[in-house]
Amino acid sequence: MENRIKFPHLKQDFAASLVVFLVALPLCVGVAVASGVPAELGLVTGIVGGIVTGLMRGSSLQVSGPAAGLTVLVFEAVNEFGLPALGVIVLAAGLLQLAMGALKLGRWFRAISVSVVEGMLAGIGLVIIAGQLYSAAGLKAPASGLDKILGLPGAAVDALGSTEALASLAIGAGTIAVMVGWKRLPKQVQTVPGALAAVVLATVVTLAFSLPVATVEVSGLLDSIQPPGMDAFGELANPAIFGTIVAFTLIASAESLFSAAAVDRLHDGPRTEYDKELMAQGAGNAVCGALGALPMTAVIVRSSANVAAGAKTKASRVLHGVWLLLFAALLPSTLALIPLPALAGILVHAGWKLIPFREIVSLWREHRGEALILVVTAVSIVAVNMFEGVLIGLALSVVKTAWEASHLKLEIIDKGAGPVQAYLSGNATFLRLPKILDSLEALPQDRPVELDLSGLHHLDHACRTALENWAERHSAVGTEPVRVTEPVLVTEREPVKAATAL
After folding, report:
1. Angle between the N-to-C axes of helices 340-354 and 194-208, in degrees from 0 to 180, rounded to the nearest 10
2. Tell me, what's the pLDDT at 170?
């Protein structure tokens, strides 16, 4: 009776933890293989995400682990700096997340443009799909995202001429087909996650028909854990590594906190404490880095499965980490039976779900500027790399916001005699300066001008300086000095207007 009082939701949380474990298992392994690291490291990150991050405060029903959204960045980092340096990068990113959470910066991630985040996920999705299509055929993928996409026709020709490649592709395609069709089966069947069912079926078919398909390489859990040594920390002397650390930090944090906002909409329980959730993610990544494992984020697929399975408290996500630990300790050899094209199929499916097709169509109809930012961010990630692609998207978002904030109206009244009157209203910023100057310089040089700025809400330094220079030039030919009515000057006492001659 006392246990029921202490843990009133134990039954629901226990059942939910098993569901999340079954969802997480193939994803942990698949993300690790796609990232170019030992499969066991994906399990390590899942274990830490469940037991370490799961115990901490933040978002009670959100589940953390290795994410498909970081595979591209991890793969690039391992290729450039080596696997030992991955631990240093993840550790540094975790410490940065802890610092940002302590400084209460978590809530500011909600201010990032949704179009940039969705563009980031779309770009990642495209690179994942392109790269995993090579893996599904048992071929080596090119290094860059653009080369992956451009090389697909040639890869298709190579695959059609190889029996082994066709067999591998059949397993990958079958895995995707099972995952897509699984949702149409009766709800009783769907209690088994589609990804797990697809992997099990692919494994059975591969073994039954002795197909010439590559399987997961297993080295053992303890052998895979390699804490970074002094040589790895020596990579910090390379300035390029700091850009990667910042990219890991920002992308992992943004993905986790956006996931938290989405999970909050799925249940009626306690709301996310964003700063504490950021610290929980930071603590988890710091531990993952110390173990030389993959970085973690909160993952919407596992989190939504957790909520849908009836979880009520954080006990479900902690228990899912325990089940992953028991699996990694007791049954690691079973990983060697899993065909690689099956994992590639899971990631192609995951990459497809990262591309927000409906949102792109909706944005194009209602906010074409936002749709453009989304598309440019995605294309930049494919064409350049993850970090620079996100920076391009953020820069476009800032420019668009600044442009839209610079609403300006210029009205010219010329009665044929007397001074020409020019009225400016709105926000005069440097972005609108060419338009202002073109209109003012077109005014008659031999007529006096009255420039009324009282309707401006904002006048930046660049515009003020340019207007002063224009007034000086206009008056240089002997015309009366330009008379200016200044914008409203707000003081502690009362607003006043001033009329001056420039």
Report:
1. 150
2. 95
